[in-house]
Amino acid sequence: MTTDHSLGKGVYYDINDYPGFLRRLAVLVIDSLVLLAIGILLWMVIATFSMANNASYDPSGIFYLVWIVAVWIYLVPLKRSQLRTIAYRLLSLKIVTTRGERPSLFKMTFRMLMWMFGPFNLVIDLIWLGADTEQQSLRDCYVGTYVVRNTAEPIGEGPMHLTRYNAVGFSIAYPRAGRQQSTPQGVTRE
């Protein structure tokens, strides 16, 4: 039997390097609280500036624009950087691609937009964490990223293949690195 290598190769990590449901839920709660605090501080600054200048316009439009930029900076460039978000730092996590590299700004922006606009909602994403062998959310599966412990190193490399699932009216497929398996004789096969 031949192995399809058309999607290239990807890395995989020890199963203990992937954060579980509670750790991922903690990331969501902590980062949401940080973004809320950023929003409150921005509103206080913009509203104070607006009142000090006796502005005749509603400052909420400026606030939303600045807050969207702040959310993007926090969830995209900061999260993928060495600094990471507050939740990733507190819980000792990082985000990498299926090739073990730092994700691009495009991938991270797409990942953030999937969180905000779907097609998956928060509940489905969290339920999926418990069903996925790599404990990744559907967003991570589709974007091609892994959330792993900060000290995690890949333990292997395998050909990328499409993982397919059919359930509850959904038919989904996403790329995943195939884990190498050992045969009873100790010979490794793909």
From TrEMBL:
This protein's UniProt keywords: Cell membrane, Membrane, Transmembrane, Transmembrane helix
PANTHER family linked to this entry: PROLINE-RICH ANTIGEN HOMOLOG, PROLINE-RICH ANTIGEN HOMOLOG-RELATED
Main localization (coarse): membrane
Domain RDD: 18-143
Annotated organism of origin: Novipirellula artificiosorum
GO cellular component: plasma membrane
Membrane-spanning segments: 25-49, 61-78
Cell cycle recorded as keyword: no
Localization: Cell membrane
Protein name: RDD family protein
Domain of life the protein comes from: Bacteria
Membrane topology listed for this record: Multi-pass membrane protein
Entries under InterPro entries matching the protein: Pra-immunoreactive, RDD
